[in-house]
Amino acid sequence: MIDLGIEKMMVIGAVALIVIGPEKLPRVARTVGHLMGKAQRYVNDVKAEVNRSIELEELKKMKDSVESAAREVETSIHSGMSEFDRQLRDVAAGLDPASGGTGTPALEASADPAYPEYRHPGKKWRLKQGATPGWYKARNGIRTRALSGAARVARYRPKKYN
Fold first, then answer.
1. Engineered SS bond to 95: which of 28, 31, 90, 123, CB 3.0-4.6 Å?
2. DSSP three-state, residue 141
């Protein structure tokens, strides 16, 4: 760039004082200052945009590496789960994986899990539910408050094996 020292600035100032005149010099200096400020802001904006684009490229590269690592973990989990499922099927079929599949009986397969049996509400069930006293509902396990879908699933989910 241009090397502006103190001597060159004094020469430029003296020439500007002679050419422009002492009356218009402050206004011209103010205008030049505003233009220089705008130029500096523009240069800073361009630098910031370049830095943002570089950071964006780095983030994309990082995102790709994280996604590839996640895919590797997912495939390893799926392969482990398939192995676990195969062993579980062997155990369910009565084969003991530790004895090499000699046919030792495994745990007895229990019957289907006990799901609550569906009861048809019948006609005008809302009216019937509303007319039933609260103590009767509490004794017989009739719902008095609405449950959300997630709460209903959590409440009526079959118990896991002990």
1. 90
2. coil
Tokens 């004794």 locate to: 139
What tens digit of pLDDT does each residue of 70-111 get?
999 998 888 888 888 888 888 887 755 555 555 444 444 455
Three-state secondary structure readout of 108-122: CCCCCCCCCCCCCCC
Q: Which domain holds residue 130?
A: 109-156
**For residue 96, is it within any domain?**
no
Considering the entire predicted model, what is its pTM?
A: 0.36
Query: Residue for token digits 């879908």?
Result: 149
- Secondary structure, 3-state, 69-100: HHHHHHHHHHHHHHHHHHHHHHHHCCCCHHHC
Contact 94, 106 (CB under 8 A): yes
Residues 67 and 20 in one domain: yes
CA–CA gap between residue 123 and residue 9 (Å, rounded): 99
| d(C-alpha 160, C-alpha 162), whole Å | 6
How far apart, in whole angstroms, are the C-alpha atoms of residue 103 and residue 121? 49
As a whole number of angstroms, the distance between CA 130 and CA 112 comes to 35
